[in-house]
Please model this.
Amino acid sequence: MGFYLIRRLGLMVLTLFGISVVIFVLLRLVPGNIVDILFDSAGMVNPADKLRIEQELGLDKALPLQYASWIGGMMTGDLGYSYVSEKSALAEIAPRIPVSARLAGSALLFAVLIGVPLGVISAVRQNTWLDYVLRVMSLSGLSLPSFWLGLLVLMGFVALFGSVPIYTEPTKTFGEAALLVLVPAATVGFRSSALIMRLTRSSMLEILRQDFIRTARAKGASAGSVNYRHALRNALLPVVTVIGMEAAFLAGGLIVTETVFNIPGLARFLVESIRNRDYPIVQNLVMLIAVVVVTINFLVDLLYAALDPRIRLSD
Amino acid sequence: MVEPVLAVSDLKKHYPVRRGLLRRHAGTVFAVDGVSFSIAPGETLGLVGESGCGKSTVARTVMRLVEPTSGTIRLDGTDITALGKTALRPYRRRMQIIFQDPFSSLNPRMTAGDIVREPITFHRLAAGKAADQRVAELFEQVGLRPGQMRLYPHQFSGGQRQRISIARALALDPALIVGDEPVSALDVSIQAQVINLMMDLQRAKGLSYLFIAHDLAVVEHIAHRVAVMYLGRIVEMAPKLELYRAPKHPYTQALLAAVPVPNPTLKRRRQVLDGDVPSPMNPPPGCTFHTRCPLAQAQCRAEIPALRNLGGNHVVACHLA
Model:
């Protein structure tokens, strides 16, 4: 177990190193840098000015040097400065983390709390009208893109209340906070809940056919005990994988939702920064998302061992 | 006469077959079609037949894991056919089931000790230390070490897992254990160990067994009486010695002729059955066996033979016997 952890952590560092190289190179492959964009809007180009600014920002140095200074800075906690706002990258990114984390967390919570129980119900009541209704709902959840669903929700607000709640920070009342977080969270979480529901259902159906379920019934176990204690615990393994994947997706995949609902989170900021070729911000943001995704995967693997005694984390 | 532990009469289980979008009724599978038998205290009834003849459906229906279409199941003289879930619970203590596959019949997430303890907890027979003590006893009774209680099912071999199943079944001190091919998935040497264990337990506790198998040699070893099923019906039932010595039904004769004899110098006249078992969705008229019976006559194609008692508890459903 101890050796496993060390090996996994080593692999995580290697993965993150690979990702940092890819981010760095890809970003510089995109034509044009911040200076081009600045001069574009000015309309007139003075090559000497341009060179001076590039030198100031360090963009004239060789790529390996630029890379080394980014990584070296990161090691000492210096993430560089945003080209656009000239504030430190940390000061730009840090306040946006809780905004996105809250949204992603609520979306995931919504997806799990809705998806798992409905999946169980759907499996236990297989081929009844309830099962059909739930399956149609989940199919629609998988088919409706979240940005379109988001627009529908906003239109619904306009039709019912005549206005759309505007995101404010900090929120005044708890109700307001709940409304501003939960509505977008449910909109994003709907798709994940559908995925989780379908997987829980099929996984449950497989387990419910096993003899140890019949044995449990023959023992005189109650329906609740059979469905949750015996069946769900065994059916949950593939579901945990998907929950992990959805969590990883939510860490960086909220771009459209944050745009539609006008939430000042990380994902929307990332898009703006890419448009401005704000290298320090983009590099560090993508790196942050990568760290989150890699960590989630690691946690899912650990959770596997906790859930299934047959899995031993060794060698 | 002693009251039987289990008395089943005219048990039927028909499965509707539904097809198409509107799920129209397209036919019926006659999985079990009028089966009657009883088992006395301390007796083992062997139930044999080909795959798909309805043996397992009988087991599951008797256990009320599957709802019977009609017929009655009496346990200790009480009709349990129509009891609801709650009313049935005390009767679950009296009968337990062991399944064929020792790899799917134990919950992989529970320790062996928890698996055996669970029925004790459900029925509030003991708790805490007393329950631990009881589980340890059961482990010893089936030839496992109490120290193995903390292991998970995947850490046991097939034979050991079947021992866990037996310990679990014994936990409630039942009068009847239904074994749905409990040794078919095991190696031959392990089969013998498990069967001997079951026989020892029977002697010690006066258990009754409904022992389902397709291996006639195994049944010959453990059963007191044997019933032969074909297409959802019992075609012959007799005390073991009687049945093996003088089978009356042509199907029983064919089954016995197919049992391998471990002596290569012995020349045998083998009677091989042609064709397959007809579909239980569309059983042939008259005697269901007439399509494969070497002796079939006109009467067999038209009339369903009733089970007749030939004396000495030997019953057979054949016009010619």
